[in-house]
Automatic annotation (TrEMBL):
Residues 29-137 form the Exocyst complex component Sec10 N-terminal domain. This is Exocyst complex component 5. GO terms for cellular component: exocyst. GO terms for biological process: exocytosis; Golgi to plasma membrane transport. Residues 40-78 form a coiled coil. The keyword Coiled coil applies. Signal peptide: none annotated. Belongs to the SEC10 family. The keyword Lipid metabolism does not apply. Keywords: Coiled coil, Exocytosis, Transport.
Length: 700
């Protein structure tokens, strides 16, 4: 433990008798001093002894350090000597190695010609056997040495190719010529490869393939391998899945058998595409090509999609440098005859199918589609009839039918959606925008023109004139359905057409075509605003039938029990229904625009209607009650202008009941101060007591 002087002194005093209790009775300072002096002497003796020991150890350490330094110097000298010896040995080894290499080169220079001579002698011997017509060598008669025989025959065949023509003819005419043996041996090797493949002996297949690599029949060996690989591989109905499984299995094996596995696998894939897939595609398409366009297009899309999916799976394998181009060419070779005229078949089918869907719908309604005048005299007559009350011929009665069908629209959009999908998959990238535009044009023709536009035209022709007593306002139903349908049309435009044309010049063309369609429909919807004339006509009819002169000038002023007139009740009920119908049929700003127009016309009708009667005091009160009810009805419009108009009308009606002395005060009120004085005067004149001198004097 670390030495602490205070603790050491305390322990020493505690051990000394008479030194442990300072100031106590047993405390003996002399004895404690004596103990301290003795202990100091002992410590001094101990210090001298330890110092001598330290000096001795230092001397010993210095001596050993000198001996060690001397030993290290001796070792360094020995190491230098050993290093010199190693350098000398290395130089000697290099010299010997140079001699050995030179000797090896000399031996090789002698041995190589000797080996070639031996090989040549053996080949000459075998050549003589072929010339004599007797093959005696064991290498030709022993079937187990077919590999050695193949090597010899290959070399003899190359030699034979270099012989003069006359010698070559004599050599080839012998019964056992090398050419015949070459062919026989090649056949034996291919047969041996075939047998090994059937037995599943990969190592034997690899050996035979390596031998055949130098023969002309190597490609035939590959063909045999490809043919046998496909035996029993296409037993299910899904030829594409079978092909993928086969290629995956062969990909694992081909590297163990052939030295060029990517070439063999590519040849297998080419064989599958050009034989199996092409035959399968032809069987599936030719059957429907001329008889059933719908099934033909479905099959073409399905087969092309599955073929490209198979191609994507095959991209995982090593097929050489440019496998993408290789597989694309294979797909093109199968489908080129079908893709060249694909869009013509698509457009023809789409046109026929769309026309059939529409005709089937109109037949179900027992409706013969008629030609609606959209120009010239017929259009002029229709516009004049709608803008005026002139009887230029009866309107068309649609019997409440809008001639718009959600089912028809869904069917047309579904057919077009499938056409866009097929177009995206089957069209050449350079032709894709153009083909997509043609499909879009078909959709516009049959959905927008032949269906929606026809329904709008029919609805316009069915709008009754303003003086008609018919309450047929089915055009609003047409507007509602047309609006819903166009939202679906717009969704398909954005979801399915835009991705196909977004980066091409056809985008602006499609957007312009869509804009023209919208503008054309808006024009017809604007023409349909004359439905409001019919609504106002119905209100006029209700007021004419229900409003009586005695309503506002009762015979018994003190016995009026009603809060508002029956005409007012029926008109308000009718208006609320029409407002609700307009809100249901339209959306966006169109709702406010139409309701504002209807509200202004409604106000004008009530204003002019009130101008037709004379009012007693109680009748004036009843008129105020009617206008208050009309004002409640106007609140449903949620149009500030309409509510303001009825507020002003309500204030005007107060002139019918106010005391003569207060007329000027009422006329200068907030709501009436800005009105023309003639308007105020016209309302005051409606009072039954207007002709009294007092009233005339007060108002003047």
């Amino acid at each position: 433990e670390p030495f602490v002087a205070d603790e050491y002194i305390e322990r020493l005093a505690w051990r000394t008798p008479g030194g442990g209790s300072r100031g106590g009775e047993a405390f003996d300072p002399k004895r404690l001093l004596e103990e301290f002096v003795n202990h100091i002497q002992e410590l001094q003796v101990m210090d001298e002894r330890i110092q001598r020991k330290v000096e001795k150890l230092e001397q010993q350490c210095q001596k050993e350090a000198k001996e060690f330094a001397k030993k290290v110097q001796e070792l360094q000298k020995s190491n230098q000597v050993a290093f010199q010896h190693f350098q000398e040995l290395d130089e000697h080894i290099s010299y010997v190695a140079t001699k050995v290499c030179h000797l090896g080169d000399q031996l090789e220079g002698v041995n190589t010609p000797r080996q070639r001579a031996v090989e040549a002698q053996k080949l000459m011997k075998y050549f003589n056997e072929f010339l004599d017509g007797e093959l005696k060598s064991d290498v030709f008669t022993n079937s187990e040495k077919i590999k050695e025989a193949a090597d010899i025959i290959q070399k003899l065949h190359l030699i034979a190719q270099e012989l003069p023509f006359d010698s070559l003819m004599g050599f080839c005419s012998s019964p056992h010529s090398s050419a015949g043996k070459y062919h026989d041996l090649e056949c034996q090797l291919i047969q041996e490869f075939t047998n090994a493949q059937r037995r599943g002996e990969i190592s034997r297949m690899r050996e035979v393939a390596a031998v055949l690599l130098h023969f002309k029949g190597y490609s035939h060996c590959v063909d045999v391998y490809i043919k046998q690989c496909q035996e029993g591989a296409f037993l299910r109905n899904d030829v594409f899945e079978d092909a993928a499984i086969l290629c995956q299995r062969v990909n694992k094996q081909v590297g163990e058998v052939f030295s060029n596995p990517e070439t063999v696998l590519a040849k297998l894939i080419q064989n599958i595409f050009e034989v199996k897939l092409q035959s399968y595609v032809k069987d599936q398409l030719e059957e429907y090509r001329k008889s059933d366009a719908e099934q033909y297009l479905k099959n073409l899309y399905d087969l092309y999609t599955r073929t490209t999916n198979l191609s994507s799976k095959l991209m995982e394998f090593n097929l050489g440098t440019d496998k993408q181009t290789f597989l694309s060419k294979l797909i093109k070779s199968i489908f080129i005859s079908y893709l060249e005229n694909y869009i013509e078949v698509e457009i023809g089918y789409l046109k026929t199918r769309s026309a059939m869907i529409l005709q089937r719908y109109y037949d179900s309604k027992n409706h013969q589609k008629r030609s609606i005048g959209t120009g010239g005299i017929q259009d002029l007559k229709e516009r004049i009839r709608q803008r005026t009350n002139l009887p230029l011929g009866p309107s068309i009665d649609t019997h409440g039918e809008t001639f718009l069908s959600q089912e028809v629209v869904v069917n047309l959009l579904q057919e077009t959606k499938q056409a866009f999908e097929r177009c995206h998959r089957l069209s050449d990238p350079s032709d894709l925008p153009k083909n997509a535009f043609r499909i879009f044009s078909m959709l516009v023709e049959f959905l927008c023109t032949e269906h929606i536009d026809y329904a709008l035209e029919t609805g316009l022709a069915g709008i009754p004139s303003s003086d008609s007593r018919s309450a047929n306002l089915y055009f609003l139903d047409v507007v509602h359905q047309a609006n819903t349908i166009f939202h679906l049309f717009d969704k398909q435009f954005n979801d399915h057409l835009m991705p196909l044309i977004s980066s091409s010049p056809k985008l602006s063309e499609c957007l312009q075509k869509k804009k023209d369609i919208i503008e054309q429909m808006e024009v017809k919807l604007d023409m349909g605003i004359d439905t409001l004339n019919c609504m106002i006509g119905q209100m006029k009819h209700i007021l004419a039938a229900e409003q009586k002169k005695t309503d506002f000038k009762p015979e018994d002023e003190n016995n009026v029990l009603i809060q508002y007139t029956n005409a007012c009740v029926k008109v308000c009920s009718y208006v609320r229904k029409q407002v609700e119908k307009i809100r249901h049929s339209m959306d966006g700003k169109n709702v406010d625009t139409v309701l504002m127009e209807l509200g202004v016309r409604f106000h004008r009708l009530i204003y002019e209607h009130l101008q037709q009667y004379s009012y007693s005091c109680m009748g004036g009160m009843l008129a105020i009650c009617d206008v208050a009810e009309y004002r409640k009805c106007a609140k449903d419009f949620k149009i500030p202008l309409v509510l303001q108009l009825f507020d002003t009308l309500h204030a005007l009606c107060n002139l019918l009941v106010v005391a003569p002395d207060n007329l000027k005060q009422v006329c200068s009120g907030e709501q009436l101060a800005n009105l023309d004085k003639n308007i105020l005067h016209s309302f005051v004149q409606l009072r039954a007591d207007y002709r009294s001198a007092r009233l005339a004097r007060h108002f003047s």
